[in-house]
Specification:
binds (3R)-3-hydroxy-3-methyl-5-(phosphonooxy)pentanoic acid, 4-stranded antiparallel beta sheet
């Protein structure tokens, strides 16, 4: 492409975008197409205000390759390649190279969905720099190519990732069910380990689909969980929401453990935290467990129970820190 055409097609200004991580209340695990990153099951999530990625992006004609700084250090080759591939998908292979600086307000790659907030922020910035459609559903389709859960982080509040039928994935995107002001529930994230996880979600999903004997049952039963959570949200029924979210989480981890070779994302502190939350519940405090592909435990609770639940989580010796999150906003640009 000629330099003049490039100048017209791309915005060479510096853009900063913010996106928040999300927690799945109904979990996504499994792909109907690994190549196109199309999920095999739908999922429902809550976007979290306290877990945030801020990304500064700029096309730069003087660069010979993409430059990716993550949390103030050059990113690993694996992460850089993943970003380059993603930028090629969004902006084309004849695009200029880009300088990307991304910072997470929380541990990266440890089961706190940093890929969700990271790819959502990047999608927002790149789509603007490359002059793409800014409709949230189009952006969600693009974010999904980076990471399935990122499609949900384009929205604030409660979002549902749909599974489409199009082989190309044009109808696999997330929609907003309710915005962040709809219902104030809290998520307390108890961090027990800040090391990166052993098996990435893509590899884990592929191994599960190929070897886990419960995979078919997982796919078949996910529709009921989606209906239940949609109903619980519509009626703001906290007990119902918590029960189904915990069930979806435990079912996903049981499925993952049943793969060959087996995978276990938990640490001893994870199990202790599950028991602590169950004890709280048996003593009358409604709190529910959810865990992604990592050892951290998240307690879903009501605003009036935050202090009690937080104290109980902090009493577990392996807990490094507890982060309190509320429903958060969708991805946005800080400047244009
Ligand atoms: O978006 P990915 O590819 O990192 O997969 C996310 C998988 C889980 O976090 C375990 C579940 C979910 O729905 O977010």
């Amino acid at each position: 492409m000629k330099e003049k055409q490039r100048r017209e097609k791309y915005n060479f200004g510096q853009l900063t975008a913010v996106a928040h991580s999300n927690i799945a209340l109904v979990k996504y695990w499994g792909k109907r197409s690994a190549a196109k990153n199309l999920p095999a099951v739908g999922s429902i999530s809550l976007t979290l205000d306290a877990l945030k990625t801020e990304t500064t992006f700029q096309f730069d004609a003087s660069l010979n390759s993409d430059l990716f700084i993550l949390n103030e250090k050059p990113a690993s080759e694996f992460r850089r390649n993943r970003i380059t591939e993603f930028l090629n998908c969004l902006a084309g292979t004849d695009r200029p190279f880009a300088r990307i600086e991304s910072k997470n307000s929380f541990p990266t790659g440890a089961g706190l969905a940093s890929s969700a907030s990271g790819f959502a922020a990047l999608t927002k910035a790149v789509s603007c720099a490359a002059g793409l459609d800014q409709n949230t559903e189009s952006l969600s389709t693009l974010a999904r190519m980076g990471s399935g859960s990122a499609a949900r982080s384009m929205h604030g509040g409660y979002a549902e990732m749909k599974i489409g039928d199009d082989a190309g994935g044009s109808d696999d995107y997330a929609i907003q069910l309710y915005d962040e002001g709809y219902w104030d529930i809290r998520l307390l994230v108890a961090i027990v380990s800040i090391g990166s996880k052993e098996t990435g979600s893509t590899e884990g999903m592929i191994r599960t689909a190929e070897t886990a004997p419960y995979y078919k049952a997982w796919i078949e039963s996910s529709g009921t969980d989606l209906v239940d959570v949609r109903r619980a949200l519509a009626s703001r029924n906290f007990t119902r929401l918590g029960e189904v979210a915990e069930h979806s989480c435990m079912k996903m981890h049981g499925l993952i453990m049943s793969a060959r070779p087996s995978m276990l994302y938990w640490e001893p502190g994870t199990v202790e935290l599950i028991r602590t939350i169950w004890d709280l519940r048996s003593q009358g405090t409604p709190a529910y467990v959810t865990i992604d592909a990592g050892p951290q435990v998240k307690a879903i609770c009501r605003p009036q129970d935050v202090d009690r639940v937080k104290q109980a989580l902090e009493s577990v010796p392996d807990v490094i820190r507890v982060i309190e999150a509320r429903p958060g906003p969708g991805a946005y640009l800080l400047n244009k």
